[in-house]
């Protein structure tokens, strides 16, 4: 065991159990001063449980914890903050309707004659943020700034309050590349100041870009702690999922599919959402949609599925014009749609996995023709097995499942309706590596069976891997279509950039 | 069959315990409480009184449960009771037949429900505000119909609904038993229950999955209106008159309370008709128990509030996890999740 | 159709009021609370009748239970220069300013049916019933009727904490005191409604040996008595014989019950508050004779001997 002198935080043989499961089984974790330490594992591996034990959100059942060489046992998150452990979550847990300065000094506002001294507070807020290269109006509401800036404000507050250990729980999930770079500059600077930083993410590139060491958990147990420089990517994934992935991404890039398009959208669009576009989709074809956030990708999906009614253009299936004015109408044409925001638009949290899987099929049959319970069970069990949905049983409320398993259940919901066109909006976002690969395999197998798919993704490599064609979007318009030899990550990025360039000129 | 019974019992366990405790408590304060006898060809006794007096709240709670399951609330039911009682009284006194009167009154209840449903589902007004409109206006409408007086009637058919009996049971009990059975079967033997729960938990996700959200929302409020109309007829028939000022006054709150005591979350989602019916019976048992106890009326509301707080604490998840350490592990989880199909 | 009828009659009334305006020598404004109960509707009807009989031009304003509407109405009466104002105040407080204004304009104000918390030089007189007295009239009737025999009484109170409930209970207990044969065994609130009256009576019957222990029922209003009578009948007893029924208000429906022998007595809370008010006003305007500050209306006792059907027919048309 290492000496505690260069460790700012040592967690030794931490145990935590919940009724029926052992969430952490004698896990050791050591964080050095001035290091960025990535904490990795599939969903359900025990990462968040460990973090919650460290920050006092949970009381550990066993083991000990040394902070700066002394025994520490935080009773709650405030206590942990006081001891020197600050945490920043993916969903910023600040108050959006207060100003930036108020958020920074909430609960410890500088006072004068018993009143909050707003002027001093704003000055100190500006000084504090200057350390983070952030020059913004601190008197504006936090909500008026981007998630990235809110994230930095949260970090500034956490570091200012705590100052020894900073835990970043998926801070980059909703940031774009530029913002991630800004965040990393700040992290490096904090590291230089001697803070110990724990970094949790699903993005492996980012792990390698910033981490000094990597600790991997699996099924509540420590798999190992390694230097990032000595651990190659393949080996890391193997540690995380416990088996070797054949290839992380299939490059079974198929040739363009021949034949008449099954779906023909002409001049399809809706004012304020997406400019009218033409789109053909053939049977057995995956059409990828690439573009930055807000480029109109999601809007395209929503209008195709009838979540928003198109106000121009026509839709044809095999030559006959069809009505796509509502999700029900689209479902009648055997469309399926997995939305981007799983939580608010996908899962029905308190319903069981079974009910979530049969929901769309039941809705199509109508309320008077309930699917018999035995048939529901059969469907649920079939998809739980086929898609490897990890749940103790089919009656578990879906909200208790991990993101990847929720996503698979929603896929199952649509597969149960035997769709002919499946629209997937960011199907792999925010899910763990194992599930990620499985979903990609599923997309390919569905295509091979002759289904048509439209897949939206920010992961360009991924799009290239499974798409037969990729449509590039920008500023709420379809601007390019790439296929065959043109279909490379490089060309897609170029297409996005080129259109950007055209705008600039 | 046995697992179904077990699942039911599991879901209804807290309510059954609460009801039993209250019944035991009352019969300790008032020994004659459990006596039942046959009088004039019908069962007679305090237990029957509870079921009989509870009829309006039970009926309201049935509709309210479904509305609350959609993440809504219907504040107008008390006023709709007053309107429907007034309509029934005024039709029967102006010489219409019993059948016409009943059909027209139920139709008025349905119209009230449609009004609420359209405000909520089509115009997307928050349910609490949308139904507040009819709650306030409804009593005025009822007063307009009765011209501010208690409109009395002597039609034996209509009176029979309030104080007649069938197979030894007072009619109001027969009506709510039949009503709750029909609704419970309707929601659980069809897919309605699941679809309604899905809407209540996540309306957007349900719509995207092809659930006919607006229609089901309107249907929930229509059911609530229909229940309120039936309750209004019973309340009027009971006193042989339509009292627009007092019929159903504050009963919307009792109905909401019944749903909550029944363990259905006000945030929508999972619901159980049987549990809400039990909740309403519990509330009425408390009311009747207080009346029988002979305490001065100043204590009525305090005692009621204290008992209800106690029941709600028993139900709170925190309390139940605390207690579950002491109980047998097999009780955990499964049966409490939901009613069996 | 009821609505249409109501609207039609309202229009006719309005037309009458306006039509007779020019001919009348005395103009009186009447600010009524609203029409929340049958009794109040009857009071409005009778006030209009009384005004018509005396050739008074009555300007009627319905406040819909709002004090601000009443204050507005009084100001408008002052502006119109009426000869006097009748006010049935919705609440007791907050009248000083507007009453001062009336006083400055030298318009006498007469309070009907309720009083206010204001100096009594701000109004001419108040015409109200004595709630305690009503209770004691009912109690005295019961004392006289049972004539020394032991008798267990159950009481249906009005809404807990309301002044009629408190005073009618007090008056009744005063009348009973000293008569050890009469004992109030159960007392619960029935909220002044038929439904609750019936429900509470049901529990009284169960609690007192199926009603065999109960000799008389005293209800703070007739509506609760009507509900209780049904409960007594459904319990297989004869109201009016097995259990004596006495109540207060004298609304038409209780006379039907009395005619059927199911109720025994009621004490009238007369809706004719305007009659004595107009009499006092006439005397004051004629020779400046100040009436007493409180004019107590008669609390008349009606029993089965008073030809209840006839009273019922008289009262039926008053809008109860």
Would you write up a description of this structure?
The complex is a heterotrimer of chains A (505), B (341) and C (320). The C terminus of chain A is likely disordered. Chain A has 505 residues and is an alpha/beta fold. Chain A has a six-stranded mixed β-sheet, with helices on both faces. In chain B, the strands form three sheets. A two-stranded antiparallel sheet of chain B has the order 1-2. In chain B, strands 3-6 form a two-stranded antiparallel ribbon. Chain B is globular. The N and C termini of chain B lie close together (11 Å). Chain C is built from eleven helices and twelve strands. In chain C, the strands form two sheets. Chain C has a six-stranded parallel β-sheet with strand order 2-1-3-4-5-11, with helices on both faces. In chain C, strands 7-6-8-9-10-12 form a six-stranded mixed β-sheet, with helices on both faces. The N terminus of chain C is likely disordered.
Largest sheet geometry of chain C: 6 strands, parallel
> Order of strands side by side in the largest beta sheet of chain C?
2-1-3-4-5-11
- Measured distance between first and last alpha carbons of chain A: 61 Å
Classify the oligomer.
heterotrimer
Shape of chain A: globular
Structural class of chain C: alpha/beta
Kindly list the characteristics that best describe this protein.
B: 341 residues; mainly alpha; two-stranded antiparallel sheet; 16 helices; C: 320 residues; alpha/beta; six-stranded parallel beta sheet
How are the elements arranged and paired?
The complex is a heterotrimer of chains A (505), B (341) and C (320).
Chain A: E1 7-18, E2 21-32, E3 36-40, H1 47-54, E4 62-67, E5 70-71, H2 77-83, E6 85-88, H3 100-105, E7 111-112, E8 115-116, H4 118-130, H5 147-161, E9 165-169, H6 177-192, E10 196-200, H7 204-210, E11 213-218, E12 221-227, H8 233-241, E13 263-270, E14 274-281, E15 286-290, H9 297-305, E16 312-317, E17 320-321, H10 327-332, E18 335-338, H11 342-346, H12 353-365, H13 373-386, H14 403-415, E19 421-425, H15 433-448, E20 452-456, H16 460-466, E21 469-474, E22 477-483, H17 489-504
Parallel strand pairs in A: 3-10, 3-11, 6-9, 9-10, 15-20, 15-21, 18-19, 19-20
Antiparallel strand pairs in A: 1-2, 1-4, 4-5, 7-8, 11-12, 13-14, 13-16, 16-17, 21-22
Helix pairs in contact in A: 12-13, 12-14
Chain B: H1 2-29, E1 37-39, E2 42-44, H2 46-53, H3 55-69, H4 77-93, H5 98-122, H6 127-146, E3 150-152, H7 156-163, E4 165-166, E5 169-170, H8 171-189, H9 192-201, H10 203-208, H11 213-239, E6 241-243, H12 251-261, H13 273-293, H14 300-315, H15 317-324, H16 334-337
Helix pairs in contact in B: 1-13, 2-13, 3-8, 3-11, 3-12, 3-13, 4-5, 4-6, 4-11, 5-6, 5-11, 7-11, 9-11, 12-13, 13-14
Chain C: H1 2-19, E1 26-32, H2 38-53, E2 56-62, H3 67-80, E3 84-87, H4 96-104, E4 109-112, E5 125-128, H5 131-146, E6 151-157, H6 163-176, E7 182-189, H7 194-207, E8 216-219, H8 222-234, E9 244-249, H9 252-259, E10 265-268, H10 274-287, E11 294-296, E12 301-303, H11 308-316
Parallel strand pairs in C: 1-2, 1-3, 3-4, 4-5, 5-11, 6-7, 6-8, 8-9, 9-10
Antiparallel strand pairs in C: 10-12
Helix pairs in contact in C: 5-6, 7-8, 9-11
